Amino acid sequence: MKILNLYCGIGGNRKLWTDVEVTAVEQDPAIAKIYQDFFPDDTVIVGDAHQYLLDHYSEFDFIWSSPPCPSHSKVRKITSGKNMENRKGYCKPIYPDMKLYEEILFLQGYFEGKWCVENVIGWYKPLIRPTETGNHYFWSNFFIPQLNTGNRDHYGTIESLGKRKGFDLSKYSGIDKRKTLRNCVEPEIGKHILDSSEDYKLI
């Protein structure tokens, strides 16, 4: 199976995939280097995942996309409120990044293989109905059964997050390790989604 793994980070979703040919796209060169270290047989592209999807979608059997989530996040929305102004942790209000929905609609309309788009459970009612499992939203063209992943340790230490996600980042510097690990989709979810794509027909 030829897989396109967009916004790949260090590869949390990819960690338990086997017998696949993966092309991964990541904007941050430092993060892309870590991904390549963990998955040396994958093709890693440093670049714009949104544009890469448009240019190369027809070359793959399965596409996974995890567009940036901060503008959709409940936490960021809360910290952008008026009662947070002039307080530590305050974030300026921003537009929700509609690349998320651009990619969902594009894949619905043009891609003939199976696909999945992942994002956080957002602060607003989704504009396109997703499946909700493992504390994530998933949009796909196949059925995704529910999966209980237990404690995500989302606010844990670097060490506990690394153990939870299965990545040892101790030798790396110059990155926000905690944020990088928190951004990882749990490996068991990644495997569950890919297995579901093989078990269930297109919908």
Tags for this entry?
single chain, 203 residues, alpha/beta, Rossmann fold, 7-stranded mixed beta sheet, 7 helices, globular
Describe the structure.
By secondary structure, the protein is α/β, with parallel strands linked by helices. The chain has a single domain, classed as Rossmann fold (3-Layer(aba) Sandwich), CATH 3.40.50. 31% of the residues lie in helices and 16% in strands. It contains seven helices and seven strands. It has a seven-stranded mixed beta sheet, with helices on both faces. Strand 6 and strand 7 form a beta hairpin. It is globular. It starts with a strand and ends with a helix.
* Content of β-strand: 15-25%
- Structural class of the secondary elements? alpha/beta
CATH class membership = Alpha Beta
Gross morphology is: globular
Give the averaged pLDDT, no decimals.
93
Detail the topology: elements first, then pairings.
Blueprint: E1 2-6, E2 21-26, H1 29-38, E3 43-46, H2 49-56, E4 62-65, H3 74-78, H4 99-110, E5 114-119, E6 131-133, E7 136-140, H5 158-165, H6 177-182, H7 187-199
Task: Characterize this entry briefly.
This protein is α/β, with parallel strands linked by helices and 203 residues long. It contains seven helices and seven strands, in the order ββαβαβααβββααα. It has one domain: 3-Layer(aba) Sandwich (Rossmann fold).
